[in-house]
Amino acid sequence: MGVILMNTENNFLRTSFFFLVLALFTFSLCLAQSPKRVIDTYNFEQDVTIYGPSGTSSIGQDQFSVADLNGDGKKDLIFGRNSDGPGGTRPLSGEVDIIFGGTQLPEKIDLLNNPPDVRIYGIDSGDELGVVATGDVNNDAVDDLIIAACLADGKNNAGYENGEIYVLYGRTSWPAEIDLSITPPDVIVYGSDDGDRIGLRITISLDFHGRELT
Fold first, then answer.
1. Are residues 65 and 13 in the same domain?
2. Same domain, 18 and 79
3. In angstroms, what CA-CA distances link 14 with 19, 40, 84?
4. Are residues 137 and 78 in the same domain?
5. Structural domain range at position 7
6. What is the 3-state secondary structure of 83-100?
7. Assign residue 48 a region: left if phi > 0, alpha if psi is -120 to 50, beta otherwise?
8. Which DSSP symbol is given to 107?
């Protein structure tokens, strides 16, 4: 009786494995046959183009993200860029910009003449704020903004390029400008040692309970 049970289990496993492989093969065929859209940006076939305010802006060079930061059900666009701070008073302090989502964005957004909905300025010259990530880190069903200044010098600027990570919790209303040297973020994480440069890359992951962790 025990031998028959073992064979039944083996047959069940083999049958299950066969159907799993068959399902994966069918799914791959559907992907291969699905139509693909080729977008040629040389011919301006993209839906929206965002122009940096200057030739050295390098918008989105570190990272960009898409998330609903104000809880209105529409995805917002977040990106870092080179910036010298408010009024050009902090060389290479860096900046993170937010453009709120809508039913339809304009085809062209020129940040020189049309500023983003939110500007977030780095704290000190040379911090190079600009790496961005998003996720609901406080589990309130609203996406939060995680940004980094990897060349910042740590707590009280007592180190050298320790790096700093800032968390700004999502909210229904955002100000047009946030100067982190005046309005501190909700959470600050400092690199422990000189040269750590934490925040050079930020990864958001899910634990097994569905909560997002950095």
1. no
2. no
3. 9, 47, 63
4. yes
5. 1-36
6. CCCHHHCCCCCEEEEEEC
7. beta
8. S
For the chain, the straight-line distance linking the first and the last C-alpha, in angstroms and rounded, comes to 52
Give the C-alpha separation, 6 to 138, whole Å: 48
Task: Quote the Cα angle for 120-114-43, to 5°.
Answer: 110
32 and 131 share a domain? Answer: no
146 is written with which tokens?
């995680």
On whether the CB atoms of residues 50 and 76 are closer than 8 A, the answer is no
Find out whether 146 and 214 touch, Cβ atoms under 8 Å.
Answer: yes
- Residue 152 C-alpha from the chain's centroid: 19
Residues 59 and 124 in one domain: yes
**Which tokens hold the place of 159?**
């180190």
**Tens of pLDDT, residue by residue, the chain (214 residues):** 443 434 444 444 444 444 434 344 444 544 455 566 677 766 777 888 888 887 777 776 657 899 999 999 999 999 999 889 999 999 999 999 999 998 888 888 888 888 999 999 999 999 999 999 999 999 999 999 999 999 999 999 999 999 999 999 999 999 999 999 999 999 999 999 999 999 887 776 544 444 444 4
- How many Å apart are CA 127 and CA 91, to the nearest integer? 9
Distance CA 72, CA 77 (A): 13
Contact by Cβ (8 Å): 96, 117: no
> What is the phi/psi pair of residue 73, to 5°?
85, 0
> Domain of 100: which CATH number?
2.130.10.130
3-class secondary structure, 76: strand
